[in-house]
């Protein structure tokens, strides 16, 4: 009987720890890794990073220059359950042991916020008529466009620091606020 009580105590402790870890990963902090070269020279392929997910709880919006992790599936509405299931489905551990290598989460930098007008000329991003000074980009951007993009309400425009090798808002459009999964906090190692 004493052994059974001890086993149940251990099982309760382990279960409680697993539940606490899941809550932290789903809602507060999540480890992930960078996949690809779109953020060179700031972040590199295979870098292990920690993301802060509390902006979803407090409804805070990112600032210019923030590095954010986005859900690139902008053609669908994100739900509360996406926030619960996605960290379990798309993570470092699962991708190592399964063939689930979908790259739905992208690491990008916030370039424009709601109401901003963006243009791309002469290797520069022009926000609201002013060329941006971007010391973090890898090299001048080759992309040019005659179009002016106005960032819609409750959205951001994101780009990779390696502008010539990045899939970003230039391809999929502005990112709805609810598709920002988290904000880059720090690199491990």
UniProtKB/TrEMBL annotation:
<keyword id="KW-1133">Transmembrane helix</keyword>
<dbReference type="GO" id="GO:0006465">
    <property type="term" value="P:signal peptide processing"/>
</dbReference>
<feature type="active site">
    <location>
        <position position="38"/>
    </location>
</feature>
<feature type="domain" description="Peptidase S26">
    <location>
        <begin position="8"/>
        <end position="186"/>
    </location>
</feature>
<comment type="similarity">
    <text>Belongs to the peptidase S26 family.</text>
</comment>
<dbReference type="GO" id="GO:0009003">
    <property type="term" value="F:signal peptidase activity"/>
</dbReference>
<keyword id="KW-0472">Membrane</keyword>
<dbReference type="InterPro" id="IPR036286">
    <property type="entry name" value="LexA/Signal_pep-like_sf"/>
</dbReference>
<dbReference type="GO" id="GO:0005886">
    <property type="term" value="C:plasma membrane"/>
</dbReference>
<feature type="transmembrane region" description="Helical">
    <location>
        <begin position="7"/>
        <end position="29"/>
    </location>
</feature>
<feature type="active site">
    <location>
        <position position="108"/>
    </location>
</feature>
<keyword id="KW-0378">Hydrolase</keyword>
<keyword id="KW-0812">Transmembrane</keyword>
<dbReference type="InterPro" id="IPR000223">
    <property type="entry name" value="Pept_S26A_signal_pept_1"/>
</dbReference>
<dbReference type="GO" id="GO:0004252">
    <property type="term" value="F:serine-type endopeptidase activity"/>
</dbReference>
<protein>
    <recommendedName>
        <fullName>Signal peptidase I</fullName>
        <ecNumber>3.4.21.89</ecNumber>
    </recommendedName>
</protein>
<keyword id="KW-0645">Protease</keyword>
<dbReference type="InterPro" id="IPR019533">
    <property type="entry name" value="Peptidase_S26"/>
</dbReference>
<dbReference type="InterPro" id="IPR019758">
    <property type="entry name" value="Pept_S26A_signal_pept_1_CS"/>
</dbReference>
<dbReference type="Pfam" id="PF10502">
    <property type="entry name" value="Peptidase_S26"/>
</dbReference>
